[in-house]
Design brief:
The chain is α/β, with parallel strands linked by helices and about 425 residues long. It is built from twelve helices and 21 strands. Helices cover about 30% and strands about 25% of the residues. It starts with a strand and ends with a helix. The chain binds pyridoxal-5'-phosphate.
């Protein structure tokens, strides 16, 4: 349930807090991100409830939004983490995620990252997800070097075309991700030849922003079938697997609709995995679906520009947030709903909402907007927003405000423009 609403005076509120009031609280004014922590923890609760009594792990994909207040809130509800770098691993553990509930994905993990994942906590992380056969001897070598056995789950590429943007489809034949399913036998044999490797599971992640469960269920069925074969084979030799990782990718409604709710993906995978032994850990790696709908980017209109003499009238609304703050429209052609922070009944006309960055792709899209404008809220910006933000054009990263229980609970303030200038001049 979204806690984004309009109050009786026409002001947009999040958790009952007027966004206009938050502009005063934001240390540098606009643009800033604001997040609803309670709705994010509700998402994790709903996904966990959908698993019923089955052993499960909701390993939140940190890349979607790595803010400490979010990680701490999710960890407090029993979420684990899916990380893709040594820094994300350190961050997750420092925020309270139990190392034994962390999976580590990524196609080219560095030696020192492998060392940390193997040695963190008292027994390392839950599983390193090997994305290629070539990674196995590398993991074995690092495990030998740090004196630990490495738990490994093989991330398979099931060659299933996810129905999403090509940049975020990962489970097809040409993607760099995962071990081709035809190579599974070789991967199992190679893993078995390294005593430093303990093979614990199989997994897949076919892509992001899936709006129906169909392809996800198909991938789940493929992985479960392979899992059962491998498990039977290993069991006959005294071993066996312990987990299946179904990946993330659960879509959200950016305005064009999304038939499936996050919990529907869990229901779909449960339907396709009835043959699994009951004690096997079912892992999912949702990122976007936990945080995207519960974050806004609040921005102020700097000025407007119009073509005057041309026959074809054009109007641009220039805001103080740019592609450096929210890259998704420029990167994927994504479109986000934009709401007026204060409602208006004035007549509207079409305008392109653009940022101040010197790139034509710094363009959020076309919207019907009234002539008089001040504050705008770019919706569904909680995932792949701040984490993809940059300081391009010497623009500081935006501040982030975190709401809990109808009040600002925490504020993160990145380095200022003045600090950026100093850092660009300082050499060692
Ligand atoms: C391996 C892996 N797991 C999980 C995710 C999270 O995906 P989403 O945010 O769509 O749930 C990603 C996203 O790229 C990923 O690459």
């Amino acid at each position: 349930v979204s806690r984004l609403q309009r109050d009786s005076s026409g002001g947009l509120t999040l958790q009952g807090v007027p966004l206009e009031a938050l502009v005063e609280r934001a240390p540098r004014g606009t643009p800033f991100y604001v997040y609803d922590l309670d709705s994010m923890t509700d998402e994790v609760d709903a996904m966990r409830a959908a698993f019923g009594a089955e052993p499960h792990l909701v390993a939140y994909a940190v890349k979607a939004n790595s803010a400490g207040p979010i990680l701490r809130a999710l960890a407090s509800r029993g979420a684990g983490a899916d990380v893709v770098s040594g820094a994300e691993l350190e961050l997750a553990v420092a925020a309270g995620v139990v190392p034994g509930q962390i999976v580590y994905s990524g196609v080219a993990k560095l030696d020192d990252e492998l060392d940390r994942a193997l040695s963190i906590g008292w027994d390392g992380i839950l599983a390193l997800q090997a994305e290629s056969i070539e990674e196995l001897p590398r993991i074995a070598a690092r495990a030998r070097a740090v004196g630990r056995r490495g738990r490994v789950s093989l991330r398979l590429n099931p060659d299933i075309e996810a129905d999403t943007h090509s940049y975020i489809a990962t489970g097809h034949d040409e993607a760099k991700f995962g071990i081709p399913i035809e190579d599974l036998g070789d991967a199992i044999r190679l893993a078995g030849s390294h005593p430093e490797i303990e093979l614990v599971g199989l997994g897949s992640h076919i892509g992001s922003q899936l709006t129906t469960t169909e392809r996800y269920a198909e991938a789940a069925e493929t992985i479960v079938r392979r899992w059962l074969e491998v498990h039977a084979d290993l069991s006959s030799r005294g071993g066996g697997l312990r987990l299946v990782d179904f990946g993330g990718g659960f879509g959200i409604d950016y305005g064009a609709g999304c038939d499936a709710r996050p919990a529907d993906f869990v229901v779909a995978l449960r339907e396709r995995s009835r043959a699994l032994p009951p004690d096997v850990l079912r892992v999912v790696e949702p990122g976007r679906s936990v945080v995207a709908s519960h974050g806004l980017l609040v921005t102020r209109v700097v000025m407007q520009k119009r073509t005057l003499a041309r026959a074809e009238q054009r109007r641009w609304v220039m805001v103080d947030a740019g592609m450096n703050d929210l890259l998704r429209p420029a990167l994927y052609g994504a479109s986000h709903r934009i709401d007026l922070v204060r409602s208006s009944s004035a007549p509207r006309s079409a305008a392109r909402v653009v940022g101040p960055v010197c790139e034509s792709s710094d363009d959020f899209g076309s919207y019907d907007l009234p002539e008089q404008l001040d504050l705008l809220a770019i919706r569904d910006a909680g995932a792949y927003g701040f984490t993809m933000a940059s300081e391009y054009n010497g623009r500081p990263l935006p501040c982030e405000l975190f709401l809990r229980g109808g009040a600002v609970a925490e504020i993160l303030v990145p380095r200022s423009a003045a600090q950026w200038v100093a850092d660009r001049l300082r050499s060692r």
